[in-house]
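Most newcomers find our protein records easier to grasp once they have seen one. A record pairs a protein's sequence with a compact description of its fold. An example says more than a description, so a record of this kind follows:
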Amino acid sequence: MYLSAACPIHRVDIFHQASNEGKTSCAERPMHTMPFQNRFALVSVSFSIAIAILLSAFPLATRAQEVPRYQVDPLWPLELPNNWIIGQVGGLAVDRQDHIWVLQRPASNTVDEIGASLTPPRSLCCVAAPPVLEFDTQGHLLGSWGGPGEGFDWPKSEHGIYVDKDGNVWIGGNGPTDRHVLKFKSDGHFLLQIGHPSSDPPNSLRTDILGRPAGIEVDSDAHEVYIADGYMNKRVIVFDSGTGAFKRLWGAYGNPPNDIDPGPYDPAAPRAQQFRNPVHCVHVSRDGLVYVCDRVNDRIQVFTKQGKFVKEFTLRPETLGMGSAWQFAFSTDERQKFLLVADGENNVIWTIRREDGAVEGHTGHNGRNAGQFHWLHQLVSDSRGDLYTGEVDTGKRLQKFVPVNRGKSQK
């Protein structure tokens, strides 16, 4: 667009030169008056077109940079079949078909919530749903599976799910002895286990077991799986996604991790040189940077894929309790300009700039109504920029949020 606009501008320059020449010869050669007027009209039209093109570019650029704003879709998802009910939402993922994958905790249901499954039945509803649920963007349930099986150790408390480019489903857990992650085909067929259950104490330098892992992301092109590890260990650890072989690990600021208890978070103290538990999420951007949620420290740290520290953002650093940086999704524009950050202590979704962490706005509020949150735990985005959230504690809820300015904020 800018190249095509340059040609009329170049004609304007020629026109100025031509008009000066015309003024010199006009009195001497009046028979050239009509050709000169034609040339003047042509250049005027060209100049007007160029200006119109340039001006039209400005609102397009402005719209492309507009901060996304969201409203809740109260009808998503649809009611589950089979009298099922979900428990706490331990993980969310979106696959390449824009299917939304939910990892929920059947064991977190209370007896009054699963009254129909008791003997004798206590009430009309309900029965615990399987741990893994697959939905479409309209809220229809497409598939379900999960739970203990042969050849693998299903986690005691489900936490973290990811679907890689090949459609394989990765699952973690944060129970006291959950020291491993699992890899399945999309139909639940078991493929790989990294680590194993253990009651051993924390050790962020061990590579044979994990430490109650919280988040998973696969770099399919590099055949590597990144794990935010976790509720016990204080590190990011990377394995070969095909074989499970250890590749590398690091702690906060790219330091070697250690397991010394730093004590409670104090916003007035110098920044902690190690992660606090839990190291709750890990994601890789399109430009190859690794983003890590250091939840209780109220920050997101950014690294190269080799673990070299690049920068960090603090997010409402005065937040105490369980911290502000729980989970996030990149915005869907090509440059991934924004991070949409789930904050389960303040119970909002923060919109921050990926470049510098500046807060541009927030969505939601603490509460029980549609569009509000109680212990907002998980968040993902589909390819259209719709957000999906999951809550824990007594929240036990899935919600969908749709951009109200989609045409202005999307690529």
